[in-house]
Every structure is written in C-alpha cells, then in structure tokens.
Amino acid sequence: xxxxxxxxxxxxxxxxxxxxxxxxxxxxxxxxxxxxxxxxxxxxxxxxxxxxxxxxxxxxxxxxxxxxxxxxxxxxxxxxxxxxxxxxxxxxxxxxxxxxxxxxxxxxxxxxxxxxxxxxxxxxxxxxxxxxxxxxxxxxxxxxxxxxxxxxxxxxxxxxxxxxxxxxxxxxxxx
Length: 175
Fold this sequence. Notes:
Layout: H1 3-24, H2 32-45, H3 47-65, H4 70-73, H5 76-89, H6 92-119, H7 131-152, H8 156-165
C-alpha cells in the first residue's frame, strides 16, 4: 500500500471516529469528543489533514444527522490550529491549546453570525452564546486527548502514524 493510500485510510478512520463518537459521548450543547479527535488528529496528521477531517465530518453531520452549521464553525478552526500549534511546539499540550483557541474562542465567536444567517433571527442569540460551551468542550476534550495520546504513545503503530504524515527531512552531508 502506497504512502498516499495509507494517509487517506488514516484520514478516513479519523473521520469515521469523529462522526460516530461525537454524538454518542456528548454533553448538552457541547461536543467534547470532537475536541478529543481534533487534538489527536492535529498530533498525528498535522494541520491540513486535521482540517480536512473536521470539514468532512462537519459536512457529514449536517447532511446525515441534520446538525446545524455549528458542526463546521466549531470544529474546523480547532482542528487546523491543533495541528499547527503541535507543529510549532512539538508537544501534545500545544495541540490542546490550539484546539482551545480554534474551537473555544474563534469557532464560538464565528458561530454567532453563522447561526444568525442560518436561523434568520438574532433575537435569541448574542455574541458570546456559544463561547462557554465551546470552551468547556475544548478543555474537557483537550484533557481527555492528552490522556489518550499518553496511553497510545506506548503502541508502536501509533508512533508510526505520526511519521507517515511528517515530511521527510533529508540529511545533507558536507565534505
């Protein structure tokens, strides 16, 4: 199996996990499992694959489960920033912080205008309506993801996944 096929297979598995687990392990108005998957995807696959994973999962939730556009605004920014922060800091805690900023702050604030457009009404909404829930879910999910990642680090296949998505650095020999 080629490297690109392996990457697509892992991406599909992350999409499936996110799609199935998020509605099951849910607190009213919060999706902490989505944050768990975002952080793990950011660590394993990096920002762009994690972003594609969140986008595809959100589209599936909207079309198959009838979830409002919050499935997109809440997850995509968190997934991309989880991967980007991990890339910058090279530690899982950085991925969790990226998820907190992306989902908890950016995603929650962007959800307001999206939901005003989606519902056609701003009477029952205010700018920070989603922030406490999104921040809470991102904190809970980030902490769980850190524990899950710690447990998975003991498994050699999990370690190989990250190597699959990391760009190969060639060693330049001098002399």
